[in-house]
Structures are given as C-alpha cells and as structure tokens.
Fold this protein.
Amino acid sequence: MPITLTVFEDSPDRGRGLARDMQVRWALEELGLAYAVRGVSFATMKGAEHLARQPFGQIPAFEEDGLTLFESGAIVLHLAERHPGLLPADPHARARALAWMFAAVSTIEPPIVEWAMARMLERDADWFAARQPMLEERVRTRLAQLAARLGERDWLEGGFTAADLLMISVLRRLERAPMLPEQPRLVAYIARGEARPAFQRAFAAQRALFEARARAND
Amino acid sequence: MPITLTVFEDSPDRGRGLARDMQVRWALEELGLAYAVRGVSFATMKGAEHLARQPFGQIPAFEEDGLTLFESGAIVLHLAERHPGLLPADPHARARALAWMFAAVSTIEPPIVEWAMARMLERDADWFAARQPMLEERVRTRLAQLAARLGERDWLEGGFTAADLLMISVLRRLERAPMLPEQPRLVAYIARGEARPAFQRAFAAQRALFEARARAND
C-alpha cells in the first residue's frame, strides 16, 4: 500500500508551501518515496473520519501499511529512521540532530506561530500595535540564538539532516517578517534548503494541488 | 562519567516541579539512572558557558560521555531509545508514541505556555481581560481533543510510555487553570502519572534543591 498524506485540499497559504504537509512532502522527496494525497477541507478536517487519523483536526496525517501518524515532526522522524539519508550515522550526531528537530517545533516555531496568529486574528484589536514589539522580540531572540549557533556552517549538524528540513520549514513562515532579514545567515540557510531539488519537487507538488483547486473554483 | 543535568539553582516555580528539568528527572527515575545536577541562575544561564550547552539559554541541558543535549523532549527520547521501559517494542506502537511525544511539546504545550505567559507578563495590560477568553479557548480545544482520544484508557499508547511522561508534565502547568477541571479524564490521567514512584522521586529531588536554596537565602 502506498504512503498516503492527508493535506489541505485548498490550502489557506494559497500555494506558498507554508502548511505543515510541506515538511513531510519534502522528506518523502529527499528519501525518494512515492506517495498519494487525500484532501480535506476546513469542514471535513473537524469531522470524525479525519479526527480518527489526526486527533487535533489538523494536517498532515500519514498512513502506510496500517500505521496512521500525525505531527509533522514525528512523521519526518519516522521516515528518517526507516530510510537512510536524513539522520547522521554517528550516535552522538544523531542525538543532536533529534534535539534540533525538537527545537524546531517546540522552541522556534511557537513564537513564530504566536506572532503570525496575532497578525491573522487580532489585527483589528485595539491592542494589536501595542503587542507587536513584544511578539517580534520573542521571535528576534530565538533567531539571534539560532544564527549564533549555526555560525558559518551550512547545516545544523554535519550534512543536511531532518533537523534542517524541519527548521527551514518553520523559518519559511517568516518570509514576510521584518525580523528575518536582520539575520542574513538564516536567510542564506533557508535559501540553501529551498535550492535542494527535493524541496523544489515538494513545493511544486503542493503548488500544483492549490492551482488545480483554484481553477476548479473559477 | 555520570549523567549531569543543568537545572535552575533557584526555580521560579518555587519547587512545584513545573520547570522542564522535571520531565528529564522523571525519565531518569523511571529508567533507574543516577545523575548529578549543576545549577544555573537567570544570570548565568544567558552566559557563554551555558549557551554552549543550551543554545537558547534555557534549562535543562543534559551531558553524558561527551554528548551534550538540549530540549527536554529530545533528552527523554534519547534516554528512552537507549534504555528499555519507556517506549513500546512494537514498531507501529513505538511510532505512535513518538507522535504523542511531539504532540505534547508542539501541539499541547504552546497554547498552555501562551496562556501562562500572558498571565505572567501581561496581567497589568489594558487588554489582559479581553484576551483571556481567547487564550483559554485555545487551551480548552486541545484539552477536549486530547481527552476524547485518551477515552477510557489509562495511557496514550498501551502501557505508560515517554509520551505520557511528556504529556503529563506539560498538562501539570495547568494545575491552577480553570480549564483543567472541565476534563476529569485528564485530571485522573495526571494523577495516575503523579502517583508513579519515579515521578515522586523526581519531584522530591527538585523540591529538595529548591528548599535547600531557600534556606541558604534566608
């Protein structure tokens, strides 16, 4: 049975590859694995059928041979553990790469999501402008710490790993943020990730789905 | 060389076991592993020596045999991979336990931290009361989804695993929140975790450190 990913049938990012299926698509492309997709809408993703796959009514969900998984970080780790190419062989380097995977989704992503959600949901609130500097500063702090640790290296732990894949996917949400250009090392780091052929195939695949849907909606 | 954990020398939670060293201490106790602790203060944790161990200037950091790790989720996973007792043997069950580990730190924890941080840092702001219902609702949604999936089971995936250890640690931050009692299944789930002898040993260890410090400060 092929791998099946459940993704937005009509992604709210309008094909910019910022939804969390992108990191799983990217991992699948890096590993050379074929997959099918199933689309869900904002309505069907809160229904019982999807909640059985993804308990929080989000995307992506992953299915293969009777195994159903959720959490993009966990899905990428599952793939990286079973197929060579996305984790270092050395045990210490592998453990550090896993630490960076957790850092991407639990230390770097939350302040980015908090900043992005405020812009999406609280833009018309009286307090929006007053809170922005605080939210930007939380992101800025994490970016500076990440850039300091990355230093002059191309990737976080030796060659390109699942940690870079997750970290770059998370940082791409800042594509329109004023904080990102302040860290040229991170801008270059993201560009290195986006230049990978596997990234480009994954990006094209999610983009094609969005464009087909946009045409169908015309 | 023994395992060394870097922890708050004077925890801001005043010994309630809510700092993130608690989940690593708990895992070490479940696995029967001895460890030493090194304390850092709010000042020294932003210094170069600690940043070399923990790039974001947080606690805990983990050291063993030349390996330095950060991110409590990654440290718990590292320990669970190397010592039996905290991950299922069946590959599919193991993969699902890893998904719950990621869910704990990247889906359940962020709205809890956002709610807790607002109470800590924005309590005197004009908008505090107006934003509270939205922040509470974000937590409430996740708790309801988690309770629905947990159902009548004792633990998330078969017996007690590293996933429960992380999830219960994250949920404990809600000990004073009005949203938690609305989900009696989760209240009972937390109590099951806290009743484990390993939890109690870990809790007592961090508590003793706080109390010794409080006496020294008298």
Observations:
- The interface with chain B takes residues 51, 55-58, 66-71, 73-75, 77-78, 92, 95-96, 98-99, 101-103, 105-107, 109-110, 113-114, 121-122, 125-127, 130-131, 134, 142, 145-146, 148-149 of chain A (CB under 8 Å).
- Chain A has two domains: 3-85+198-217, 91-196.
